[in-house]
Design goal:
This protein has a five-stranded antiparallel β-sheet. Helices cover about 45% and strands about 20% of the residues. The chain starts with 5 loop residues before the first helix and ends with a strand. It folds into three domains: about 100 residues, 2-Layer Sandwich (Beta-Lactamase), CATH 3.30.450; about 100 residues, Helix Hairpins (Orthogonal Bundle); about 150 residues, Histidine kinase-like ATPase, C-terminal domain (Heat Shock Protein 90, 2-Layer Sandwich). The protein is α+β, with helices and mostly antiparallel strands. The chain is built from eight helices and twelve strands.
């Protein structure tokens, strides 16, 4: 303060005390009411400290302040305050009588500060060790995940041809050797064919899962009329639905602009959604496939009048291997992978897929394409 004019030294000192000093400075009455405090109090303890009682700033387990006794003491007294962070902190206070009021000056407890720094260092070291271990475990999990996907892909690929042969041979015997087979043999062959087809479907979906989890959804985009594509797909699905006298209606305007999409992958999505609608619809019912343009996306809807889905099950529908608690009317088995694969294909097209359903009134599955 050597270069400060004498008249300004007191002003600079006061400004430092009330604006910049790290110490807590309070002016209190004999009853303990705070009538003035510096910014350090407002910043660290309570921004509304003025007009409060100093006792109200203490935590429950702190010793209470006896102002008369504190003024007489030469040594600082240790008190625990509730800070603005919500955590208690210890301060060493000295109290001075001045001009009919009491001035209290507090500093952080050096021992507590050192202990806190030590604890923070230990916590930081422990966190660093945990973080390193976590990175190591994540790397190991990623390696195992990739190994699992490779094994899954190889196993499904190697099993697909033998299972396909079982399906083809059993189908051949059922159609060409029916006259030489007994009823029991026909039933057994039908069971073999049905189980083989289920296994083949499962293997195909496991291959799709392996590619998806490996980040390899290979899309082959082609530009074409989406209504024509829907019509061809619905015609094929009508053949399967007719076995249970279920009708599939198509509502698609023929003037839809051409869009770019992967025909094979969207065929897979539609086949899954329509086959699910058939499974969960009673015989003789109807399914509606519709498409409309909301101005930003082309939205396709597959709606049925079947059993519906409860609100509790909807969030899990698109997770792998999840199967609805509702039993299909057709009693067909489900792999629990179809909707998950459908979602990944739609996401790869930069679209979305969702469902609206009311138990007992049917379900409507939607997906959007840009």
């Amino acid at each position: 303060m050597k270069n400060i004019p004498p008249d300004n030294k007191m002003e600079v000192l006061q400004r430092y005390i009330w604006e910049d000093a790290p110490q807590l400075v309070l002016v209190i009455t004999g009853e303990g009411k705070i009538i003035q405090c510096n910014k350090s109090v407002k910043r660290n303890i309570n921004p509304q400290a003025e007009n409060m009682l100093i006792q109200d700033l203490l935590v429950e387990f702190s010793p209470q302040i006896d102002l008369a006794m504190a003024i007489k003491k030469q040594d600082p007294c240790l008190y625990n305050f509730r800070t603005s962070s919500g955590l208690p902190q210890s301060f060493r206070f000295r109290f001075f009588a001045y001009d009919g009021h009491i001035i209290a000056i507090g500093e952080t407890d050096a021992n507590e500060t050192a202990e806190l720094r030590k604890q923070m260092l230990e916590i930081n070291n422990e966190f660093s060790n945990i973080n390193r271990e976590l990175h190591k475990k994540n790397a190991e999990l990623e390696q195992l995940h990739q190994l699992k996907n490779r094994f899954l892909g190889m196993a499904a690929h190697d099993l697909r041809n033998p299972v396909a042969s079982i399906c083809s041979l059993s189908d051949f015997l059922l159609h060409n050797g029916i006259k030489s087979l007994s009823n029991d043999q026909v039933d057994l062959l039908s069971m073999i064919k049905e189980s083989g087809e289920f296994m083949l479907s499962l293997l195909e979906e496991l291959l799709s899962i392996a590619k998806i989890e490996a980040g390899r959804i290979d899309l082959s985009f082609q530009t074409g009329n989406y209504s024509d594509f829907l019509l061809r797909n619905v015609k094929l699905n009508r053949i399967l639905a007719s076995k249970r006298n279920i009708k599939i209606h198509l509502q698609a305007p023929m003037n839809i602009y051409n869009i770019s999409f992967d025909r094979m992958k969207l065929d897979q999505v539609l086949n899954n959604l329509i086959s699910n609608a058939v499974k969960f619809s009673p015989d003789g019912n109807s399914i509606t496939v519709s498409v409309f343009d909301d101005g930003l996306h082309l939205i396709t809807c597959i709606a049925d009048n079947g059993k519906g889905i409860s609100d509790q099950e909807i969030p899990n529908l698109f997770t792998p291997f999840y199967k609805s608690s509702e039993k299909a009317y057709s009693k067909e088995r489900s792999t629990g992978l179809g909707l998950f694969i459908a979602k990944q294909i739609i996401l790869a097209h930069k679209g979305k897929i969702w469902v609206d359903s009311t138990p007992g009134s049917g379900s409507a599955f939607y997906f959007s394409l840009p």
